Amino acid sequence: MYTALFHTHRLVVSIFLALYFIKMILLLMNKKEQLTNFRKWTKVPEIIVSTLFLVTGIWMLILKPTMSIFQVIKLAAVVAAIPCGVIGFVRGNKILGVLSFVLIVAAYGLAEMGKKFVQKVDLGPEIVTDIDAKEYDQLRHGEALYREYCKSCHGPDGKLGLGGAYDLATSRLSDSDAMTIMMNGKGTMPGFKQVLTQRDADAVLEYIKTLRTE
Ligand code: HEC
Asked: 21: CA distance to ligand 1 center in Å?
């Protein structure tokens, strides 16, 4: 569900950007008449595209309410771009037209960056992370990391499936495949290699295997 939404959102955003780009070029080239005509022809498709743009975006936000700082800035950029675009293209104001296009492109870039960016969290003193310590417990360590980094999508038992996340209870991937996905990410799942050491990752892997049923 979420994956379908995500792909639809990406597609409509691309169409929206393409329309904006053409309008901006016409505006910059002082092709007033063509710009007016183009706006007339694309009026209905643009209403459809921008409605889908907003509906899919808001829907995804509802399904996954935790927002990163990137998403907050992205949303602000999109919200600011719309009035700039309307005024820019209707009144033929080049600065506002370009500004609006730049804001939308920046928002798109931020969305892509945000996916790659995972903030490192400190597990606090209760969790022993030194594998040489006597009281080190790999599953406890793995569980604590899982709670911080994975639970938001995979859920406490691995079955939540938010954002199209695979069910970890029925996953039968080999250790090395699961490790690769965890470190490098896949689809809408971010990679965790910037925040997990190999030992951390080993602990998470051992922990997620305990979520497997059967
Ligand atoms: C932003 C949501 C999100 C977060 C956070 C997340 N995942 Fe995922 N995970 C996914 C998605 C989506 C997939 C499916 C990827 C695909 O194949 O397209 C997935 C797939 C997986 C798979 C592959 C399962 C299979 O059988 O194919 C593993 C293993 C996994 N995640 C482990 C983790 C671990 C461990 C963490 C935390 C370190 C984590 N995930 C954090 C979304 C997430």
From this structure: 35
